[in-house]
Specification:
Blueprint lengths: L1 H11 L6 H20 L9 H13 L5 E2 H8 L7 H13 L4 E4 L18 E4 L1 H6 L7 E4 L6 E5 L6 H5 L1 E4 L4 E4 L4 H12 L15 E3 L12 E4 L1 E6 L2 E6 L6 H13 L5 E6 L7 E5 L5 H11 L3 E4 L4 E4 L2 E4 L2 H42 L6 H4 L4 H12 L12 H8 L3 H5 L3 H23 L1 H16 L8 E2 L7 H4 L4 E6 L4 E3 L6 E6 L4 E6 L3 E6 L4 E2 L4 E7 L7 E7 L6 E6 L10 E2 L8 E8 L6 E6 L9 E5 L5 E2 L6 E4 L3 E8 L8 E6 L4 E3 L5 E6 L5 E5 L3 E5 L11 E6 L6 E6 L7 E6 L8 E2 L8 E6 L5 E6 L9 E4 H4 L2 E2 L6 E2 L5 E7 L29 H14 L1
């Protein structure tokens, strides 16, 4: 056997060692990809291919557009990786709309459509790029890959270009993902840093949408942001997606919506893509589907909300570094200061040289040195130079530096025509201008920080209007998928066999549910469990109650009476089930054998009923019937024993009277940051709401509507008032009527309950709202304008001026004079406090089945029933 192994080894030949290959070739390749392909340099914020494209465009620049195909071909002199990579990088630069001025079909970042072929589209450098990116005098150069040309090591960019454009690249072993930021905010942040002030930077995307930056972590590795699409409600059956998250297209968003529909997460009738210059995706809802719940579901299950993890990796000092966004901006601002300082120094040196030669020229011509015999009769060029140098020697103190032979040779090159046209006064003026300019440069160099601040202010003023913020900064509320998923399944139960599930179509229906829901099951022995929805699952027999479980629900209260199996005593208790482990068995009793539930109700808002307890007759028992009000029992944890109801044997327990909630109304707050209601004391407190209460929403455009107080409701950002609706509350509006030549009117009215938007202004679009107030006794100051501005202001008492009518009423005209504005004044009287109502309360409904029967009749019935057994 060993001989065979030896033969096989001989046939295989010698083995190659791969360690050297990995150590050398792989590391060389990895470092090349990191440094020369995928990761941007911190100095100019560009990858090598982008830098080479811009350098080529600068070399080709003549103010006119160039074919992209020509630009690609020219760039191949510097970039050795083919035309495809150059073309793709150029299109990406053009779509960012900052450095490249595009012409033709460059694709669409909203739809994901690609650009036309390079031979059909054209480009040139933008004015911003020409002003900020290039300066050959301050650029460091290196040989191109083939040694035939020079290319920049980095471009002398005087702006945080890396943060403005953003970048994404994948190298070997690391990646870089820097999100784009707003142009104006970058200028402001740079100014603040140079002044020693604090600043904050947050991403801004061309695609718009809204962003939650709570975990942005200054763009450092490990942070994240959430980006949402902008979704508007056209009506209760149609949603419109106007802006999409960064990195997504309308195609990908629509595909994610259709996938969610296929999985049953949301109910949508159809989706239309009307995107052109702007995004417009219309989502048509199925009948009976909540638009608010669908908006949450779109955020939870589709690409309408995405999470992005930035990773600020840049090349600095020829190595990759992981930095914060603020660090990148600081380095960029320092680099801009250094570049501006270097440019000033170069320009100063150039001016000094010009000033030096202008002084030489002036003396050379005014002193007529060119007419000297020693100059004209000089036997050689060296002799002539020596003569000129000797004649200039007395004037050396006036010169900026020493006079060199090159200076003298340059004087000798002056043409006779220039000498004849020489004007001493103009020469003095030119020298004075150069001296003033040098003095100004010296001042700027001495105050280089202020000079750099002015540079950023100039950029913002010149180009900032073209870069408004597109992405709104918002705090997002957390959407629980289980709460917004469409209940597209039906839950059934087979009590006899002990099965529940969505596949038991022929059995008892329980409720609508989704595949993310949990089910809570109570048994007659006091046990209960929470288990996920399934197609078919065995859960056991003797089931008392089954329902969909709502996690962290402290409003649903269970009222129970149970008989303890050990003592035989009856206990009464109230409890809530807020959070439990799935498929773990719990016990609401003491857990003794033979324990059973004798009374059980589920109360969605903590209602507390009155029960009638009938005891079994025993000798010497005088009272066999008594009542117990559950409102007298405190709500405790599910493990509490409860209160002792009775030690005697109970014949039956019946519901006598339904009661109200012991938890009170629902306290509701409105969070202006997320434009959502909540029960968690976040934002403005709206009040305590009962079941029939609603919320009034008044918008800035004159529209209003009412909603319920469900926390899933979505509200617009242009809200003027949002409060608990009071149908008797009187509102006063001042407006310029569009139908009556803009005369001011005053109207008083009450809003009405209406789930659809209506306007309390008239239908004329020229009507303008001046103010709206809910003051009981409002007072107004009317300020006249135009030709009537000489009139004294008019004070109007709103309650006396106009009576209360419907919200559609036109109102009463205040004056026919020209009015500039109307201001609300402090009231001089206030409403009295309402007196307590002495009205009698309505008698509650009596549900006692034994009402009107005497104790004897009940005992006879019990005894008769007992005789039957």
């Amino acid at each position: 056997m060993s001989d065979e192994i030896e033969e096989i080894k001989k046939e295989e030949g010698p083995k190659h060692q791969l360690s050297g290959m990995y150590q050398n070739w792989f590391l060389d390749y990895a470092s090349y990809v990191i440094l020369e392909r995928a990761v941007p340099h911190i100095n100019d914020g560009l990858k090598p291919v982008q830098r080479r494209i811009l350098h080529s465009m600068k070399r080709m620049d003549d103010g006119r557009y160039n074919k992209v195909a020509n630009i690609v071909g020219h760039t191949m002199q510097f970039h050795p990786h083919g035309d495809a990579s150059i073309g793709d990088a150029l299109v990406q630069l053009g779509q960012k709309d900052l450095l490249v001025d595009c012409q033709g079909n460059w694709g669409n970042i909203l739809t994901g459509d690609g650009a036309a072929a390079p031979r059909y589209i054209e480009a040139r450098l933008s004015k911003f790029a020409l002003e900020v990116v290039f300066n050959p005098k301050t650029t460091e150069w290196k040989n191109s890959y083939d040694g035939r040309n020079k290319e920049p090591i980095t471009l002398p960019v005087k702006f945080p270009l890396l943060l403005a454009q953003g970048v994404e690249g994948i190298a070997v072993g690391l990646s870089s993902k820097i999100l784009p930021h707003n142009f104006n905010e970058l200028c402001d942040a740079s100014i603040n840093y140079l002044k020693g002030e604090t600043f904050n930077l947050y991403p801004d995307f061309q695609t718009g949408g809204s962003i939650d930056v709570a975990k942005y972590n200054d763009g450092e590795r490990g942070g994240s942001v959430k980006v949402r699409a902008k979704i508007d409600k056209l009506d209760n059956k149609t949603l419109a997606i106007r802006e999409i998250p960064y990195g997504r297209t309308t195609t990908s968003v629509i595909e994610s919506i259709l996938k969610a529909v296929e999985k049953g997460k949301i109910k949508v009738r159809k989706v239309d893509d009307n995107t052109a210059a702007d995004v417009e995706i219309l989502v048509h809802l199925a009948p009976g589907v909540s638009s608010d719940k669908t908006i949450d579901a779109l955020y939870a299950f589709t690409d309408c909300e995405v999470s992005i993890s930035p990773n600020c990796c840049v090349i600095d000092e020829n190595k990759p570094h992981f930095l914060k966004v603020s660090d990148v901006l600081k380095k960029s601002a320092d680099n801009t200061l250094s570049q501006l300082k270097q440019e000033l120094e170069i320009h100063k040196n150039e001016l000094l040289e010009s000033l030096h030669f202008a002084s030489l020229e002036k003396i050379f011509i005014e002193e007529r040195i060119y007419k000297d015999k020693g100059f004209e009769q000089a036997p050689s060029m060296d002799a002539a130079c020596e003569h000129i140098d000797k004649r200039l020697t007395p004037f050396y103190p006036k010169f900026i530096r020493e006079v060199t032979k090159e200076d003298i040779l340059r004087l000798m090159e002056i043409k006779m025509g220039r000498i004849l046209k020489f004007n001493s006064d103009k020469a003095d003026e030119a020298i004075a201008r150069m001296q003033e300019e040098i003095a100004a440069i010296d001042h700027n160099l001495a105050n280089i920080v202020n000079y750099t601040v002015d540079w950023f202010k100039m950029l913002k003023k010149k180009y900032g209007k073209d870069f408004p913020r597109h992405t709104e900064l918002r705090n997002f509320d957390t959407i629980e998928a289980a709460k917004v998923v469409e209940a597209n399944e039906k839950l059934y139960i087979n009590r006899e066999e002990g099965f529940i599930g969505t596949g038991l179509k022929k059995d008892e229906f329980i409720a609508n549910c989704s595949d993310l829901d949990d089910v809570i099951i109570f048994y007659r022995n006091g046990k209960y469990i929470v288990t996920p929805v399934a197609d078919k699952k065995f859960v056991g027999k003797n089931i008392l109650h089954v329902d969909i479980f709502k996690k962290n629900d402290n409003r649903t209260i269970y009222n129970t009476v149970y008989k303890d199996g050990k003592t035989g005593f009856y206990y009464i208790k109230r409890f809530a089930v807020t959070s439990v482990a799935r498929d773990r068995e719990y016990d609401l009793t003491q857990g003794t054998p033979n324990t059973k539930l004798v009374y059980f109700t589920v109360n969605p808002n903590g209602e507390a009923e009155i029960i009638k307890v009938t005891l079994k007759p025993v000798p010497r028992l005088r009272k066999i019937i008594f009542e117990k009000d559950f409102s007298e029992v405190a709500i405790k944890g599910r493990q509490a024993q409860g209160l002792l109801l009775t030690k005697l044997e109970v014949h039956k327990i019946a519901l006598k009277q339904r009661g109200g909630s012991t938890l009170g109304g629902r306290k509701v707050w409105f969070d202006h940051d997320v434009l959502r209601l909540n029960y968690d004391e976040r934002g403005e407190y709206l009040g305590e709401f009962q079941a029939n209460d609603s919320i009034l929403v008044v918008l800035n455009n004159g529209e209003f509507y009412t909603t319920n107080f469900d926390i899933s409701n979505h509200y617009e950002s242009n809200i003027r008032f949002l409060e608990k609706f009071d149908p008797n509350k009187v509102w006063t509006a001042a407006l310029f009527d569009g139908e009556q030549q803009g005369y001011p009117y005053l109207k008083r009215f009450c809003f009405e309950t209406n789930n659809r938007k209506q306007s309390y202004l008239n239908e004329n679009k020229k009507t303008q709202l001046i103010l709206l107030t809910d003051e009981v006794y409002p007072r107004f100051e009317v300020i006249f304008g135009g030709n009537d501005d000489f009139r004294e202001p008019l004070v109007v008492d709103g309650e006396e001026f106009v009576t209360v009518k419907g919200f559609k009423a036109k109102g009463k005209r205040i004056t026919t004079y020209t009015v500039s504005t109307i201001n609300e004044l402090e009231p001089t009287r206030f409403p009295e406090k309402p007196e307590e109502s002495g009205e009698e309360q309505e008698e509650p409904e009596v549900l006692d089945p034994d009402a009107g029967k005497s104790d004897g009749d009940i005992i006879d019935e019990i005894t008769g029933q007992m005789k039957l057994f």
